[in-house]
Structures are given as structure tokens and as C-alpha cells.
Amino acid sequence: MIKSLIDHTQLAANATGSQIKTLCKEARDHEFFSVCVNPKFVSYCASQLAGSNVKVCTVIGFPLGANTTRVKVFETNDAIASGANEIDMVVNISDVIDEKWDNIQSEITQIKEACSGRLLKVIFETCLLTDEQIIKLCELSKKAGADFVKTSTGFSTGGATVEHISLMRKSVGQEMGVKASGGVRNTTVAKAMIEAGATRIGTSAGIAIVTGKEESPQGY
């Protein structure tokens, strides 16, 4: 069922504690896979979701990916200590464009080690990259031990596309997960992403997706 693939997401800079509380309740009520929140809210979500099957996911180096590796590793350690079950890290997009492949693989490897067994997703920001760069990132993410590759932050010039999901699935094979995020806001789009190879959907429109109701096209 689609609901079990949804990371119920609230990453807005102006998100309030009240909104995060509602997010957690919605995730429990609809049996979503996880909530995905900024690091500030990890500990709170962990307490709110204790005793449920809903995981706590957070973002690292978000949304630009331009932090140093040392900072990203620190963020990851802090998030795990606060109760995060999954980590979504933003790759250093500048390094991708400059083809600093060793730097990228090293960073992913270090963050995976800091995850201490927790699941790691690598966010590419596919709207800024060529197909060749996406394929190369898939190869590096796999070599570095990441568990998922992910399309987008939802904060750049575009989100997930069926074409990119298909390309990522083909590139990583069946051993890794593929997460579609950015602009997935209704049932039709979510199903298309899953058919293309997505095994997780990151969205703030999870309720609309599982109920079949349309939402406005803006946002994550």
C-alpha cells in the first residue's frame, strides 16, 4: 500500500512545534512509514512516536549540501543521538559538477559510518544535474554503502520526475531504495513514481495521496 511508502514531511523554515505535533499524529493515524523533519525536531518526534511503528527521518546538510563533511558528520551523530532512525543527506552538488568524485564517495562513506547502522539516503538534487552525473552519483552512493538514492530536496528548481526515478532505479539495480521527493502531491503522480521504481515517497501531501484528494502543486 502507498501509505507504507510515505515519509510524511515538514521541512519548512517556519514550521512550528504545533505543526510537528500534528505531523506525528497524522503519521500514526495513517500508518505512514516515517515523519521527515529538520534536526531541531528529531527528539520531539521520537518522543511523540514512541510505541508506534512510525520512524523518524531527518535531513543533513539541508537544503544546499554545501556544508563541510565534518559538519555533516557532526549533524548525523547529533541526529542519531537525538533518536533519528533514518538520515537523508544532501550531496555536495558543487563537487558533482566539478567531478570531485573521490570527495563525494568519501563524504557518503563517512556519513554512513556515522549512521551507526541506521538507514542512509543520498539526495542528489536531480533538477541541477545531467543524466550522466545522476548515473555516476548512483554508482558512488552504492559503493559508499548508502541504502537509498533520492531525487530532490524540494527547495530547488524542480522535483522528482518519472524519467529520473527510472534512470536511478536502472542505475542502482534492485539492491538499493529509490526515493521520489519534490512535487509528489497526488495519488496519480505517486503511483507513477512507484511504477517507475520508487520505493519511498517524500511528501507533505501524504494524506491527499492516500485519500485521493488533490492538493495545490506547491511545496515538498
Topology of helices and strands:
Layout: E1 6-10, H1 17-30, E2 34-37, H2 42-48, E3 55-60, H3 69-82, E4 86-90, H4 93-97, H5 101-114, E5 119-123, H6 131-143, E6 148-150, H7 162-172, E7 177-181, H8 187-196, E8 200-203, H9 206-211
Parallel strand pairs: 1-2, 1-8, 2-3, 3-4, 4-5, 5-6, 6-7, 7-8
Helix pairs in contact: 3-5, 5-6, 6-7
Description:
The chain is globular and about 45 Å long. Helix 3 (69-82) runs parallel beside helix 5 (101-114), helix 5 crosses helix 6 (131-143) and helix 6 (131-143) packs across helix 7. It has a single domain, classed as TIM Barrel, CATH 3.20.20.70. The protein is of the alpha/beta class and 220 residues long. The chain has an eight-stranded parallel β-barrel with strand order 1-2-3-4-5-6-7-8, surrounded by seven helices. It starts with 5 loop residues before the first strand and ends in a 9-residue tail after the last helix. Helix 8 links the parallel strand 7 (177-181) and strand 8. It is built from nine helices and eight strands. It has helices at 17-30, 42-48, 69-82, 93-97, 101-114, 131-143, 162-172, 187-196, 206-211, and strands at 6-10, 34-37, 55-60, 86-90, 119-123, 148-150, 177-181, 200-203. 47% of the residues are buried.
Mean pLDDT rating: 96
Task: Could you tell me the CATH topology label.
Answer: TIM Barrel
Given the structure, what is the number of helices?
9
Helix-strand category: alpha/beta
**What percent of residues are in strands?**
15-25%
Indicate the low-confidence ranges by residue numbers: none
CATH superfamily: Aldolase class I
Helical fraction equals: 40-55%
Do you know the CATH architecture? Alpha-Beta Barrel
Order of helices and strands: EHEHEHEHHEHEHEHEH
Tell me the count of domains: 1
Task: Output the radius of gyration.
Answer: 16 Å
